[in-house]
Amino acid sequence: MKEAPDIWNVSPASSHYSRHTGKKPFACPDCDYKTAVSSDLSRHKRTHKGEKPFACPDCDYKTAVSKDLSRHKRTHTGEKPYTCDKCDYRTGHASALSRHKRIHTGEKPYACPYCDYRTMNTSTLSIHKRIHTGEKPYTCPYCDYRTGDTSSLSRHKRLHVGEKPYTCDKCDYRTGDTSALSRHKWLHVGEKPYACPYCDYRTVNTSSLSRHKRIHTGEKPYTCPYCDYRTGDASTLVTHKRLHVGEKPYTCDKCDYRSAVSSDLSKHKRVHTGEKPYLCPQCSYRTGNTSSLTAHIRIHTGEKPYACSYCDYRTGDTSSLSKHKRLHVGEKPYPCDKCDYRTGDTSSLSRHKRIHTGEKPYACDYRTGDTSSLSRHKRLHVGEKPYTCSLSTP
């Protein structure tokens, strides 16, 4: 049998020796970088000099690392040598294959040091940690908007330039966000591939499922640094914090409307265009936003996924649940600017304000400021008497 080599009988400067001992004998003269491999040090030094000796023969791309050049060349050749053994996925990058395989295994090796969040890749973890640290290194060149990830910055900049490069192949829908396009396409096929393990809820994307599951678990990992507000949704926290600082980075190019939420701006713009791109698959109802369509479809299905924590009340939309809960807690966040009236419902506030303005938008010859009053009045014409007494005559 061949005798195993003595790994210690080698030069102390060898990279193999250093890997076993943990020593890093190769140090950069310009910074604190140290490594166990001399070739790694050579590559590192190029970052200081700006030296990029490896050039692509097909374009202007240059790099300091030969492996990076090999990967880049595959963008020209279309070569994808790395294949998944579970599905048809192919890629030109070994690291991309490793990340893809975690979709099948469910492995999430990267953990947040501040909360229970785990993810499949380091870049997502870096973006997530900025929620806790408040770091926003990426800035908009057109306004004061700052964000913690480059994809959000790219989407935001499209609001200024009006760019919508992603188009639906089934209708005229266009968007500046690839994830929005994916969600939109599922509206055509009715596909909702992600299912809640606790109830019948299904959705078109994983982030919505994660947020939904927190309804069951009560988990609220994201906390406001200005008050006691907690939420189960990172984007909701970002929006909430704007209430404290008064930030409204999203502006309408047709009027003075400003918003703290990009989706609110998109919905607002449809007031000017009259666009209603979302169609109910069961009737002729159309709307300008997906949340309204989702709530409308529940009229057909009878689904009521949102439950009151104080009683048996259930509803098909979150706004109705919020209004209902105010009955229990007595919260009345909407004040009249003319008197001391307060209410927990924006529609009630609108009706109340007509007392001051004298506005009566609903007409027969009879005019009133209240839709319920108009409904009652119309019954005088048609003779409708829908309500019956349940008591017998003595």
Please explain how this structure is put together:
The chain has a two-stranded antiparallel sheet. Strands 3-4 form a two-stranded antiparallel sheet. It has a two-stranded antiparallel ribbon with strand order 5-6. It is an alpha+beta fold. A hairpin with a 6-residue loop joins strand 11 and strand 12. InterPro entries: Znf-C2H2_CTCF, Znf_C2H2_sf, Znf_C2H2_type. It is found in: Nucleus. Keywords: Metal-binding, Nucleus, Repeat, Zinc, Zinc-finger. Its main location: nucleus.
Briefly say what this structure is.
This protein is α+β, with helices and mostly antiparallel strands and 394 residues long.
Using brief descriptors, characterize the structure shown:
single chain; alpha+beta; two-stranded antiparallel ribbon; 14 helices; about 40% helix; disordered N terminus; Znf_C2H2_sf; Znf_C2H2_type; C2H2-type domain-containing protein; Znf-C2H2_CTCF; repeat
User: Which stretches of 5+ consecutive residues score pLDDT under 50?
Assistant: 1-10
Number of strands: 26
Class per helix and strand makeup: alpha+beta
- Average pLDDT for all residues: 82
Global morphology: elongated
Strand content: 5-15%
Major sheet: size, sense and barrel closure?
A: 2 strands, antiparallel
Widest β-sheet, arrangement of strands? 1-2
Report how far apart the termini are.
110 Å
Please, how many helices? Answer: 14
Gyration radius from CA atoms, angstroms: 30 Å
Give the proportion of residues in helices.
40-55%
